[in-house]
Design goal:
Blueprint (H helix, E strand, L loop, with lengths): L3 E4 L4 H14 L8 H7 L5 E8 L2 E11 L2 E9 L8 H12 L4 E7 L8 H13 L3 E9 L2 E8 L5 H17 L4 E4 L1
Parallel strand pairs: 4-5
Antiparallel strand pairs: 1-2, 2-3, 3-4, 5-7, 6-7, 6-8
Length: 182
């Protein structure tokens, strides 16, 4: 299966597809305003990437980079294309795209009391089955606690804080709590 990652430019049609998927794939408390994502994607340290198989649009990645660190903020495959192997193929393509980076993501902590515990377990297993390791680190972003999964090595609290500050800036950093616990 051949997957291509394409940087999203100013193509409004493509951005609308990404926004629709973004709004349905992520709960309100885990979403930044889409206009903010689009604005910050203009930075050299942010990659907003569409995922394609040939001409078929499958989904997107939103990745923030700092030095040799790449944080997958968001990854979603279109609901109609899930379960067909595209997500695994897309992750493989992303690992190749960032071959010289330590790649990591945040996955909701497995909390037995969570109403979506089955979904959380399935999601974490998906990443583990695709070569990510549980880095035995938790991060709190806003009110949500996540487990950190990664490829290529550990992520320190100072590295995470630097990356988040670089993306959010001083204004947002004072208003949104991000804390890593190792």
């Amino acid at each position: 299966m051949s997957i291509e990652l394409r940087k999203i430019n100013r193509d409004r049609k493509e951005k609308r597809k990404c926004k629709r998927l973004y709004l349905t794939a992520f709960p309100d408390n885990e979403r930044a305003p889409f206009i903010l994502l689009s604005y910050k994607a203009r930075r050299d340290s942010v990659d907003f990437l569409s995922v394609y198989a040939g001409d078929k649009w499958l989904g997107f990645f939103y990745v923030v980079r700092d030095e040799d660190l790449a944080y997958i903020f968001y990854f979603a495959i279109s609901e109609t294309e899930r379960g067909k192997g595209y997500g695994s193929a897309a992750l493989q393509a992303l690992k190749e795209y960032y071959f010289s980076y330590r790649l990591f993501l945040a996955s909701e902590t497995l909390d037995d009391a969570a109403p979506n515990i089955a979904e959380r377990v399935k999601r974490k297993n998906f990443y583990l089955n695709n070569g990510f390791e549980d880095l035995k680190t938790k991060v709190q972003e806003g009110e949500v606690i996540y487990d950190i999964l990664g490829v290529g090595g550990e992520v320190t609290n100072s590295e995470y804080q630097r990356l988040m500050f670089k993306w959010m800036g001083s204004f947002m950093s004072r208003r949104i709590t991000t804390e890593m616990q190792q």
